[in-house]
């Protein structure tokens, strides 16, 4: 079944976690991805918070696979900021398995405590887990054009 970002936005946190666990690592993506914040708790106002975050803060990511880094798309102006390195590595969410690691520790003063990991759940659609130090703080989706 082909899924979209909208399908993920309509999924519960438990469903998102199960999708992530079952997903293959997939290839390291390349290009521009539209992003949406997905939450760890199921509350009636998640859609509103997601809308505000998307409208005012985080829009997605631009992957430069061959160069080994990405930049986040920030604000409604989609400014390219906050760099992370790209690699395959150990998943914190699925111990003993791999994920695509987005590491900000050596590339961003502001986000140096952030570590994301992503897996492809459908063609061009990734779920990510965001960590602050070793605390999982939220999930997110990345939709690449297919």
Structure, explained:
- This protein is of the alpha+beta class and 146 residues long.
- It has a single domain (5-143), classed as Lipocalin (Beta Barrel).
- It is 18% helix and 45% strand.
- The two termini are 15 Å apart.
- The mean pLDDT is 88.
Cα(first) to Cα(last) distance is 15 Å
The CATH topology comes to Lipocalin
Estimate the helix proportion, in percent: 10-25%
Low-confidence stretches: none
Number of domains: 1
Q: What value does the average pLDDT take? A: 88
Shape, principal axes of CA atoms: globular
- Indicate the structural class: alpha+beta
Number of beta-strand segments: 8
Q: Strand order of the main beta sheet, please? A: 1-2-3-4-5-6-7-8
Order of helices and strands: HHEHEEEEEEE
């Amino acid at each position: 079944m082909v899924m979209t970002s909208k399908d993920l936005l309509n999924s519960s946190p438990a469903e998102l976690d199960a999708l992530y666990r079952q997903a293959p690592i997939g290839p390291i993506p390349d290009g521009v991805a539209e992003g949406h914040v997905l939450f760890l708790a199921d509350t009636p106002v998640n859609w509103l918070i997601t809308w505000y975050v998307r409208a005012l803060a985080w829009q997605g990511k631009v992957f430069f696979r061959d160069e080994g880094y990405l930049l986040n798309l920030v604000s409604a102006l989609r400014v390219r900021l906050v760099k992370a390195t790209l690699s395959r590595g150990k998943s914190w969410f699925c111990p003993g398995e791999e994920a695509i690691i987005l590491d900000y520790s050596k590339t961003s003063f502001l986000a140096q405590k952030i570590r994301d990991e992503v897996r492809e759940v459908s063609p061009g659609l990734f779920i990510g887990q965001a960590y602050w130090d070793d605390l999982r703080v939220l999930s997110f989706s990345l939709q690449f054009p297919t």
